[in-house]
Amino acid sequence: MKRKRLSQIEAEHFYGVHRERPFYTSLVKFMTEGPVVVLALESEDAINKWRDTMGATNPANAAESTIRKQFATSIERNCVHGSDAPETAAVEIPFFFAASELL
Q1: Is 81 a catalytic residue?
Q2: Which of 10, 75, 81, 92 is catalytic?
Q3: CB 51 within 8 Å of CB 58
């Protein structure tokens, strides 16, 4: 886990998969407004467990005890991100962590 501030270029690159979507510009702006905390989790079924902890993308639909229900302000400013598949995690984790930082 570490705290960092994403540059405009980093945010544009990380969220590049959404470049053609209408929310891309506002997402990049949101992600560069302040520091972020990034973490790499390792556990049996880590992706699904983390996604359950995050809650639905739209905080209005998220379960009460989830991060998004408690802290998100809108679907676009939903306060937390998580990889959706092992293949995505394999790209996203090295974006933030050098191999030497992972145990």
Answers
A1: yes
A2: 81
A3: no
